[in-house]
Amino acid sequence: MLSKHDSILRDQLEMITLDQLVPSNHLVRKIEAAIDFSFIYELVKDMYSEVGRPSIDPIILVKLTFIQYTFGIRSMRKTIEEVETNMAYRWFLGYGFHDKVPPTPGSGKIMNDALKIQTCLNRFSIVS
User: Fold this and answer.
1) Is the CB of residue 63 less than 8 Å from the CB of residue 92?
2) Are 96 and 16 in contact (CB under 8 A)?
3) Per the confidence metrics, is the pTM higher than 0.90?
4) Which of 56, 38, 42, 45 lies closest to 112, judged by CA?
5) Residues 92, 31: contact at Cβ < 8 Å?
6) Per-domain residue ranges of the chain
7) Residue of 121, 104, 34 whose CA lies nearest to 64
8) Per-residue confidence in pLDDT tens, the chain, 128 aa
9) Which of 11, 51, 79, 99 shows a CA-CA span of 20 to 30 A to 88?
10) Residue-by-residue DSSP string for 101-128
């Protein structure tokens, strides 16, 4: 017998946290539990100026790279597009439902910051 789903619940309102949407066994939770990313600040502190526009948080850049390589996403632009809609990625980055995702690499800003991070990590032999 053919069944039809009669009600469309797309505009249903429900109180839920981002934490509830990410399964407890999701890989991003395991990465977050295993790695304390705060060491990144110490590695990159000399690469940022005290004046000028605020940068993208260096930990966000490292975590974006983790997402890209771990989940086989081909480009940073696509990674950022995925972060727009993937709640597990947003949770991993520490973003809420409505937080703005970093600009796409076309602006140059994220790539400049990413190069700073990569240079610093290479200098300290953290990434080969």
Assistant:
1) yes
2) no
3) no
4) 56
5) yes
6) 18-123
7) 104
8) 888 876 777 778 889 999 999 999 999 999 999 999 998 888 877 777 788 877 788 899 889 988 998 999 998 889 999 999 999 999 999 999 999 988 765 544 555 566 666 665 665 555 44
9) 11
10) PPPPGGGSHHHHHHHHHHHHHHHTTS--
